[in-house]
Amino acid sequence: MKLFRQIVGEGDPLIIIHGLFGASGNWQSLVKNHFSTRYRTVALDLRNHGRSPHADQGSIAVMAEDVLELMADEGIERAHVLGHSMGGKVAMHLALFHSHAVDKLIVADIAPRGYPRRHDSIFAALKSLDLSSFNSRSEIDKALTPQIPEFGVRQFLLKGLVHHAGTYAWGMNLDAIEANYDSVIAEIEAWEPFEEDTLFLRGSESNYVQDADLMSIRALFPFAELQTIEGAGHWLHAEKPEEFARICMEFLG
User: Cα torsion for 82, 84, 87, 90, to the nearest 10°?
Assistant: First the structure.
């Protein structure tokens, strides 16, 4: 599948993989102000997200294959890879099963373990709206508030809206994303570890990566280091962008 991508900068390639319900545009400021000053930065939209094509299949393994196809299209044999949340799982799978393609790996606020279903209420809320009946994003925001009271989460989700011919719609393929959700939250398993430099970054206010996860992380990524950004939650790259960029760029070298 030919993924949508935005490429900025020169230097060693750095591939950035967004999380669930996200898109490459979530990383625009970090790419422009930081990563592209040193690296050929490729921010992509995963299948069923952003401006990439839709498809029924959307497992972590399939999405990793899409990234490999993108690398081949762009003539990239090996790249640094940075993934957040679901994108972190795609990045981990890529490193474990296609290690020849990954130089240094950064995984933001996700561990290789399995996770409980955390997003069923969001799927239900987004799918409950008849978007054709709304005239503005503010109306949609108001309609989502009872089911999704967190302002920041709503603003993030509303970035997935598209407006065409006077009508709003979700740009992402919600049905396919929900159908493949069990794969997204499943444990990452592999026979062989990834034996290159790896950084796991977590937010101190997030519970996605806990101290107890370090054992399973080191089993698959024996050279992994774990750093914590104080005061940041799950969207640590958006909440603490300067610190996030500094730590990543120091690690990448």
Answer: 60
> Active-site residue among 175, 183, 197, 213?
175
Query: Residue 152: pLDDT band by 50, 70, 90 thresholds?
Result: confident
Choice among 34, 84, 234, 237 that is catalytic: 234
Domain residue ranges in the chain:
5-116+180-252, 120-178
The one catalytic residue among 85, 93, 109, 206:
85
Q: Which two tokens stand for residue 5?
A: 């991508």
The residues with which 202 forms a beta bridge, in sequence order, are 228
Crossing angle of helices 86-97 and 60-73, rounded to 10°: 70
204 is an active site residue: no
Fold annotation for 5-116+180-252? Rossmann fold (3.40.50)
Asked whether residue 165 carries a pLDDT value surpassing 90, the answer given is no
Decide: residue 189, CB within 10 A, 0-12 exposed, 13-18 middle, 19+ buried.
exposed
pTM recorded for the entire structure: 0.96
Given the DSSP bridges, would you call strands 161-164 and 167-170 parallel, antiparallel or unpaired? antiparallel
Of all residues in the chain, what percent carry a pLDDT higher than 70? 100
Length of the chain: 253
Is 175 one of the catalytic residues? yes
